[in-house]
Design goal:
10-stranded mixed β-sheet, alpha+beta
Length: 304
């Protein structure tokens, strides 16, 4: 007997909930914000909108299905199953946060605050959830390219937007950088770290660096097997260079970084708490990942 599908609702603690956890009561949180020129009413309203959307999606799950909820901070401890349908209710970044833990499960991004979020990944409204869930296994989906980092001790990290390699506190990182199949050219560098990102990531952190570099190379499409990489603030010195500071990677190409600091980290999509730990002499290779994120493209009979 096959298991019924399971709807996994991914959400994030709201700013209002964080304020209550810190200050204890609504009144104390309101006083704290008022002393800094902010109004708690707006934050509370956004909290209510998020919870209304979550409740609407929950009610849309077919009665014969199983359900589970997971908060962003628990994603690295949650076990997703092959038969899951993942519904992310929140900002675009929450889809990216969940992507690294998935392996082919369909993902529905629901925007609880239309007009506030760009809607690159949370493409749907809570009202679409019932129709989308019914056809999740066959609905048209975008297969979004992901990036992976694999260390020489078998540690592995996946990301939808970008992977950062550098010092944990974004201080100076020392390493040797090279490109596989590039004639053995290796450059010692001291920098603020290296970013390697996808076409999806080119709408976020990667884009700011790309714009600073004059808008080159050409940004890949989100479904294209091509990555961009940038070295942040490379420092020239008698022993460190700045000639390898930007480029693109097509599968199966790899960017190789060998650590020459006591400790560096690699983390994806801003989740610094779930990072690879890299020590002196270790090598990590970064490139296009064979795994992709299956993001449901549209709701039947509705316009986005």
């Amino acid at each position: 007997m096959s298991l019924a599908p399971r709807a996994v609702l991914v959400h994030r603690i709201t700013e209002y909930e964080e304020l209550l956890a810190r200050h204890g009561t609504h009144g104390q949180a309101a006083f704290f914000l008022a002393s800094r020129g902010r109004d708690l009413a707006e934050i509370a309203e956004r909290h209510h909108r998020a919870h209304r959307a979550l409740a609407e999606v929950t009610a849309a799950v077919p009665r014969t299905w199983r359900q589970a909820r997971v908060e962003r901070g628990d994603l690295d401890r949650f076990l997703f199953a092959p038969e899951d349908v993942v519904v992310v209710v929140g900002q675009d970044g929450l889809v990216a946060n969940a992507a690294k833990y998935l392996d082919g499960q369909p993902v529905i991004g629901v925007d609880p605050e239309p007009g506030r979020n760009p809607g690159v990944l949370v493409r749907h409204r809570a009202a679409d959830a019932a129709a989308l869930l019914r056809v999740a296994s066959t609905a048209p989906a975008d297969e979004l390219t992901m990036v992976e980092a694999v260390a020489d001790d078998t540690q592995r990290l996946l990301a939808l937007n970008e992977i950062y390699l550098g010092a944990a506190g974004h201080q100076t990182a020392r390493y040797r950088l090279s490109l596989e199949d590039d004639g053995g050219v290796v450059e010692a560098q001291a920098s603020s770290g290296v970013l390697v990102g996808t076409g999806t990531g080119a709408t976020g952190w990667l884009r700011s660096v790309w714009q600073q570099r004059g808008g080159t190379p050409v940004v890949p499409r989100p479904t294209e097997d091509r990555l961009l990489w940038f070295v942040r603030e490379a420092w020239p010195s008698p022993v460190t260079g700045t000639s390898l500071v930007a480029g693109e990677l097509s599968a199966p190409g790899r960017l190789c970084l060998t650590v020459e600091s006591e400790r560096l980290v690699a983390f994806g999509d801003g989740m610094e708490g779930d990072a690879l730990e890299l020590t002196w002499g270790q090598t990590v290779r970064v490139g296009v990942c064979a795994r992709r994120l299956r993001l449901i493209a549209g709701a039947p009979g509705r316009r986005r």
